[in-house]
LacI family DNA-binding transcriptional regulator (Agromyces allii), 684 residues
Amino acid sequence: MERDPVRAAVTLHDVAREAGVSLATASRALNGSTRKVNDAYRERVLAAAARLNYSPNLSAQAIARGTTTTVALLVADIADPYFSQIAAGVVREADSQGLIVTMAATERDAERELELVRALRGQRPRVMILAASRRDDDPSAEALAAELAAYESTGGRVAFISESGAAFREVRLENRAGGEALARALVALGYRSFAAIGGAEGIRTADDRLAGFRAGLESEGATLDRVVRPDFTRDGGYAGMQQLIADGLEGIEAVFAVNDVMAVGAMSALRDGGLVPGVDVAVAGFDDIPTVRDVTPALTTVRLPLEEIGRRALQLALGEAGDDGTPLATEVVVRASTPARG
Amino acid sequence: MERDPVRAAVTLHDVAREAGVSLATASRALNGSTRKVNDAYRERVLAAAARLNYSPNLSAQAIARGTTTTVALLVADIADPYFSQIAAGVVREADSQGLIVTMAATERDAERELELVRALRGQRPRVMILAASRRDDDPSAEALAAELAAYESTGGRVAFISESGAAFREVRLENRAGGEALARALVALGYRSFAAIGGAEGIRTADDRLAGFRAGLESEGATLDRVVRPDFTRDGGYAGMQQLIADGLEGIEAVFAVNDVMAVGAMSALRDGGLVPGVDVAVAGFDDIPTVRDVTPALTTVRLPLEEIGRRALQLALGEAGDDGTPLATEVVVRASTPARG
DNA sequence: CCTAGCAGGGAAAACGCTTACCAAGGGCGG
DNA sequence: CCGCCCTTGGTAAGCGTTTTCCCTGCTAGG
């Protein structure tokens, strides 16, 4: 594993010398400048660069050009399919634009998020995409907004996924409307009494979905009888359902978990409690992560085009998609976990 | 959404002026240098920096210091739980070391991988972690090795996850041994005749697992009767199982899919084909992604500590973990998808 | 044939930082 | 009380690029 002593990387200077031209010419030859360079020279430079395996130092370019090709992405947790799907969209779009993605995880901690924004700002990314979940009670929200405003005032662009609560661009998710539509769909299937597993209070996404769901139920004359609020994770969903079971599930026909990973955990809790999801009690989720096609019964949910969301967030930040672009298609997908009820 | 005209970002120069000290002093005050700076001065500088909301330009630091704080991560597809778990580990470890992760996706294309390595090299990352799956027949493998060697010769460090096929550091996964152990475990449960869903030929990871599995079976006197080789994805797993069903599943007691996402797809294919996984035919996978606890029946698999793998890869590249560190715990996890057989 | 204009190469400044080197001041040993 | 050394602030060089500006040598028009 031991290698030759470290030699310095090949610089443009080396290429220029090798090609027998000036630094300026080498620079112009290697990346489209407005200036034309003689074909013979260009050839020589390109050949020299290839021979030396030259790779331009992006930091140096950034500092000379005053602009980078970086986009920064902040998620709560990349291992969570919701975020990893979004991240995939961002990465794909970035790639198609020749941009490089740097990623950090807030671990659902607002303090950390602020620190990370500060740190990432040092990169002078062209764009920052914040996908980590907003909270209502976030004490550092103001500081975050200030930090981001400072970032934007120096030419950066911020895009939030879901609501920013401040004046930044955002890919708005139809959390409320989705919850509402799901409620109506379930009522239409014959369900009348519901419980919900909601995710810790204050998480905007969770709250909106829940509020929409409740509104949808009420508009149809159905009721949301119980709500538990565990963690916004698979294990939270499991625990939430356990709690519902412990408190007595009688009379509850369907349980809505505000996201799919929780719903999936909830179904496992049901099963471990000796109940059959979709038979003893219906379950529905939100997001339509890939997994839900493969659990049994397949999960009814609200589809969010997650990858598209990531892609859109980047486009939006780059100023390519209008702020008023077509809204993202959100759609209730009914599957076996909520069979029609006699 | 329109904001003030873009003003230039605050520079160290501004901070120094604001604090009434020299550039050098400001620099020394703001980041641990070997030199001490008078407390009064330090205070002034810190205050000025805070007042101006100064954020050091990382590119400039990189170029001045001759070293970055970046680690580059290459995965096949971040939306795949295998990679997203690994990425989570890398990100977490990087964070704890004050490093920033830049990520790119090869989309399972060796050409793209090479391009990405070239592009990422421009960042002068401290470390490059390659998690994208190696292939045996890869025509650009040599070019890749050359590129990486060049990168290492200028002080970079490469770490592969799984075998590099070349002289780079690597976190070796016990793919073969894991497959073998799984085979033995299944035989011990009473299974005798098997099929496998293998992932396209040439993918080293898939081939190793399969070879290990086959070896394990043979050493126990059992047989691997059929092998199909669809894509290395969930849909590949589904298609693979469909093919097995179409060709007739009679006599096959258990199916091994070389990774969990394929296994999960395969179980769905079984179910859609009117068969019950774990009852009509047993199914086992490899990786132990979180999902497999929640499918029905829960999936028997070989656990890989994915997040730990990501973390280790980074430590290894940074030279913190010995090359000969304790091997990663790989363990067969028997669940309901492979019930003991009479 | 002369000159205005343009094409294109090269020198050097600039980008925002770090750090080697210099210089000045203060403490301390003899 | 003198000289040294140590401490610490400042000056300036340097990192690898891009880009402005200058300058030369052609071309083309009159």
